[in-house]
Fold:
Amino acid sequence: MDKLLEFGRKALFCVRVLSGYEERRIRSFRLQLEKRLQQARERKTSLRKAPEQVILSEVRRMVDEMQSLNKRLEETESAIEDYFKPVDKQAEAVMKMQLEGEERTMKEMVKTMQRQALLERQDLDKLANAKCADVDQHKQIPRKKEEAGT
Structure:
């Protein structure tokens, strides 16, 4: 009986092969395998891309955080500048007053130095005139003696 069953199976297989049923079944099985392989490849590439996407999303998040931090820093800087504007104006006014005072003292010192230089020049001129007068007198005295002796 087993031989009969075995023969029947072989005959049925031959009928399926001859009718093309088995070939279609093999093709459909091969197509299913190819689809599974393609899906597996897609999953594999998506898994490979997943870490890249995670890294990219993390980088984007960090960039956004840094931009928001920069924005807050700029806002803080502007708030600090606004807060210190009156102090800066007062400091500027004080410095301006100090500079004006220093300019006045420098002008006074220059005037004083000019006066002193003028006085020294006058003193030197007087001394030079006095020396010239002494020289002239010495020259005139011997001439008077010569005039008197002749």
The chain has one domain: 2-149. The chain has a mean pLDDT of 86.
